[in-house]
Amino acid sequence: MSKPIRVTVWGENFHENSDRDRAGMAERYPDGMHGAIAAGLTELLGEAVVVRTATQDQPEHGLTEEVLADTDVLTWWGHATHAGVEDAVVDRVHARVLGGMGLLALHSAHFSKIFIKLMGTTCSLAWRNSRDTELVWNVLPSHPISQGVPQPIVIDGQEMYGEYFDIPAPDELVFLSTFSGGEVFRSGCCWRRGKGKVFYFSPGDQEYPVYHHPDIKRVLANAVGWARPEQVDFSPPQVADSVPPRFTGATLVKEIV
Amino acid sequence: MSKPIRVTVWGENFHENSDRDRAGMAERYPDGMHGAIAAGLTELLGEAVVVRTATQDQPEHGLTEEVLADTDVLTWWGHATHAGVEDAVVDRVHARVLGGMGLLALHSAHFSKIFIKLMGTTCSLAWRNSRDTELVWNVLPSHPISQGVPQPIVIDGQEMYGEYFDIPAPDELVFLSTFSGGEVFRSGCCWRRGKGKVFYFSPGDQEYPVYHHPDIKRVLANAVGWARPEQVDFSPPQVADSVPPRFTGATLVKEIV
Amino acid sequence: MSKPIRVTVWGENFHENSDRDRAGMAERYPDGMHGAIAAGLTELLGEAVVVRTATQDQPEHGLTEEVLADTDVLTWWGHATHAGVEDAVVDRVHARVLGGMGLLALHSAHFSKIFIKLMGTTCSLAWRNSRDTELVWNVLPSHPISQGVPQPIVIDGQEMYGEYFDIPAPDELVFLSTFSGGEVFRSGCCWRRGKGKVFYFSPGDQEYPVYHHPDIKRVLANAVGWARPEQVDFSPPQVADSVPPRFTGATLVKEIV
Amino acid sequence: MSKPIRVTVWGENFHENSDRDRAGMAERYPDGMHGAIAAGLTELLGEAVVVRTATQDQPEHGLTEEVLADTDVLTWWGHATHAGVEDAVVDRVHARVLGGMGLLALHSAHFSKIFIKLMGTTCSLAWRNSRDTELVWNVLPSHPISQGVPQPIVIDGQEMYGEYFDIPAPDELVFLSTFSGGEVFRSGCCWRRGKGKVFYFSPGDQEYPVYHHPDIKRVLANAVGWARPEQVDFSPPQVADSVPPRFTGATLVKEIV
Fold first, then answer.
1. pLDDT (average), residues D130-138
2. Partner D, chain A 86-115, Cβ-Cβ below 8 Å
3. B62 in the Ramachandran plot: left (φ > 0), alpha (ψ -120 to 50) or beta?
4. Is there a contact between D166 and B127 if contact means CB atoms under 8 Å apart?
5. Residues A138, C166 contacting (CB under 8 angstroms)
6. For A162, left (φ over 0), alpha (ψ -120 to 50), or beta?
7. Chain B residues with beta carbon closer than 8 angstroms to that of A173
8. Closest CA to D182 of C189, C137, C165, C140
9. How far apart are CA C251 and CA B3, in angstroms?
10. Cys bridge to B149: B30, B215, C142, D39, which one at CB 3.0-4.6 A?
């Protein structure tokens, strides 16, 4: 329990470097969105975590076997270049999640290959970018992820993500967001897959400085704690062939059937 | 499958007769709220249902053993006089639900004795009566209850019910409501309890004519169909004492353990 | 509601034609496993269904656009040649399920491409083929799929499928199986995906005549009824771009935040 | 996180003192069942917990306001004298659970007043006392409660508890038990209620020394960790009356509706 959680903050790192967005991103996120997310986790969790970043433009998208073997929780932010993520890397991340690694899928990562592969649905939604106010409501007060934030969290400017959000029913529904345009979104959702845990959290867009918001940082820090592996063996579940029986000699009692 | 569903629409019938509310109620609900709900079901479901009403002011609140034994689905609307409902009647309804009868708990019935007894929680919530616009969003398009209504349902004037709503996580979350004040509410929730099914639906308040709204009538009709019993034996689950084993002779294989 | 449910019973049709299994299969399943499943549905559901079969050896595995467009519920049995199913057909079935078609994944179909794609996990399990007695226990008496069968269903000879079964937690857990060897399996599981419904049911193996078992036939007939689409528009959920707001003019009330 | 978890182990303490059972209990549980459970927690959790015991024969059943105010997790074992537990104490425990206290309901506590009140169902089941072998299978490897125990846990002699177990579908199903008689039971189940967490675990009967079993002790220790409160304010959820709106000025956009 006392070893630090090894967190890898993965960023697409596209908007940061695109002609259209570079200037604004440099203002909002001088160290990139991944840099801001990583800094927030380090600020709030201190020695309880060891945080590194990785980006899509690196070899193997920065997610080599070695990096994943050293990762307890992976956070994923992607938007414009989902299609450019190599399937082999997606499969590697998928196996690691099923083996126990936590995954935090953030905002537009709803359309990432890894999230769709884990969910099995289209993961489509409704959206509008018109600087809505977003209110994030806690609907699961017994959950570790919803601790230490006001009811509701208020985000002054955000892209709107709305229902219908095509996901499997969450194992735990933690947050619901409303928007000034009247929409609603299941914005904080937990699933267990294999030995691993997945948290989707929608607040956070490249055009708004949401990852500097103290309550959003708190939620992400809480989520890292929740998503950490329960064990140290990261092998995904596998078939157990021709297992020996536990009982022998069991005979059906016919008369009562 | 072809026998009509026997529906009993239960109403507190208090506001209809109180000095303060009588005039307004007579305008909005000349046949009482229970009368309006019953009429909507008959209108939409026709020969697929047989609908009666029962009210709190009747002997045994209109829910005698005979009436319940003739009821497949019970709808419940109460508000001002929850405490006046006799525990013996609550226990009777409870046993019938666990035996297979469907229950539709409507609006302020979140605080009815029967709903609290089935949920095990406080069933408390946030509220405000300021003629909000309510939008009811479908988040489970594969569910029979959400068929045939627009996305969202729009209710011009409604009391606001908001989170945190202290209920067990629904087995199926069908609707989420947003309000012009920015709040959110899990407004359409399904649970299974014993052999029976429970649907909570929040739209519907004595001060607004919501039960005449065509989409709300559709939801209630759908819910009656969903909540109908799967079988004809309405005995609640009970202990099976000293049951005979199904297998004999089973011996633990020690070496693999 | 009164139109017949259009069912396509899909079979791998490999064991029926393999040198090793042909003789035994001809005895147990003279019309193929798909033939037996189809006959059981027709026998129990009569005019409420229209049943056809399709097999992997047909062009496009018998699952052309036209066939799927005419299918409300698809049952899937595969085992030895999962890998030979074309991805394009899997994608087509996947889209149809998300659009509302019901899917019954049977026995070794836990390892079919379509089931894995819908689940997002490895779908691995433990197994042993030693003619165990299987007992199928109903743990959800309020569910339509568990109606009309004894507690438990007894299957004299069956392959053992055991935990850990690597699936997402079912939305509804209907059946648990025990085996004479002492194992347990979540043998009847429901999930909702997109607009569609998925039921996994494990009893049924090529080496045992399980699909002739009257209780197993009843479960499959019940499952077809449960899995039928709720609507006639089979388009999968999709992104709604730049949707207009429902409210205008909403301004955050600063002082209470 | 570093403060010890305050655990109160509650025991009915009836069998320990009854003429029929005293001798056998003294052999199996010289310090009472509550004493054995408390010792196991202290042994495995050390300084992470402060453990006390309380019994039904004490004033207010040992669960005074003061004791509960000093309790983070309560374990409950009762069997023969459920009816003798005062409703006022049950209500006090109920409020504390909804306020955040964890509750571990053990074995025959399925029929305790507090468990029934939290579940809303009959909590009935099938049983047989014939020294069955019980196998406890982990079906949720991502869960903290299932860590550090073999697959399956083997209990040589146990009372059989079988399905149908009349409980709400668990929020998280952790363990399934099979018995040498062929039965199955949902033996490890989690629910969230209000701000609190509830774990039911069936292994453990007065006639068998199950609470000395190292794997059972491990499960209980894990469960205490899982059930600990997330926060320090133990007030149950309550109604928020006439809350101010978060948005003002929101106007419905009519044309798109």
1. 98
2. 100
3. left
4. no
5. no
6. beta
7. 169, 173
8. C137
9. 52
10. B215
| Residue-wise pLDDT tens digits, C152-182 | 999 999 999 999 999 999 999 999 999 999 9
Burial of residue C64 (CB within 10 Å: 0-12, 13-18, 19+) is middle
pLDDT, residue C12, reads 98
Percent of chain C beyond pLDDT 70? 99
D101 and D74 Cβ atoms separated by less than 8 Å: yes
Nearest C-alpha of chain A: how many angstroms from D115? 18
Residue B28: alpha-carbon gap to chain centroid: 22
Nearest chain B residue to A176 by CA distance is B184
Q: Which residues of chain C have pLDDT under 50?
A: none
- Residue % of chain D over a pLDDT of 90: 98
State mean pLDDT over D15-23. 96
Separation CA C208–CA C205 (nearest Å): 6
The answer to whether the CB of A171 falls within 8 A of the CB of D142 is no
Q: State how far the Cα of D21 lies from the Cα of D32, in Å rounded to an integer.
A: 12
pLDDT at site B71: 98
Contact (CB, 8 A) for C247 and A182: yes
Q: What is the pLDDT confidence band of residue B255, given thresholds at 50, 70 and 90?
A: confident
| CA B58 – CA B76 distance, rounded (Å) | 15
With tokens 């001798």, the residue in question is D23
Q: What is the pLDDT of residue C111?
A: 98
Whether B257 shows a pLDDT value over 60: the answer reads: no
Q: What is the mean pLDDT of chain A?
A: 97
This complex has an ipTM of 0.97
Distance CA D55, CA D34 (A): 8
Cis peptide before A30 (omega within 30 of 0): no
Q: Which of A137, A169, A250 sits opposite B163 (nearest CB)?
A: A137
Q: Model pTM?
A: 0.98
Q: Which 170-209 residues of chain A touch chain C by CB within 8 A?
A: 171, 179-183, 191-194
Mutation pick from B132, B139, B142 vs chain A, by most beta carbons of A within 10 Å, is: B139
Backbone angles phi, psi at B207, to 5 degrees: -90, -5
- Measured between CB atoms, does A254 come within 8 Å of chain D? no
pLDDT of residue C257: 52
Distance from CA of C72 to the nearest CA of D (A): 29
Which residue in B163, B201, B56, C141 sits closest to D121, CA to CA?
A: C141
Return the partners of chain A (3 or more C-beta pairs < 8 Å): B, C, D
Closest-CA distance of chain A to residue C120, Å = 4
D-proximal residues of C, 129-158, CB under 8 Å: 133, 135, 137-141, 151
Nearest to A188 by CA among A197, A175, A169: A175
**DSSP 8-state assignment for residue A57:** T
Query: What count of other Cβ atoms lies within 10 Å of the Cβ of residue D240?
Result: 15
| pLDDT greater than 80 at residue B142 | yes
Whether the upstream peptide bond of residue A237 has omega within 30° of 0, thus cis, is: no
pLDDT tens column, A112-168: 999 999 999 999 999 999 999 999 999 999 999 999 999 999 999 999 999 999 999
Chain B interface, best mutation among D166, D197, D200, D248, by max B CB count within 10 A: D166
Q: Do C237 and A182 touch (CB under 8 A)?
A: no
Residue to mutate among C115, C158, C192, C193, with most A CBs inside 10 A, is C193
Peptide bond into C152 cis (omega under 30): yes
Touching D: which chains, 3+ CB pairs < 8 A?
Answer: A, B, C
CA distance D62 to C82: 61
Chain A residues touching residue D246 (CB < 8 angstroms):
135, 152, 154
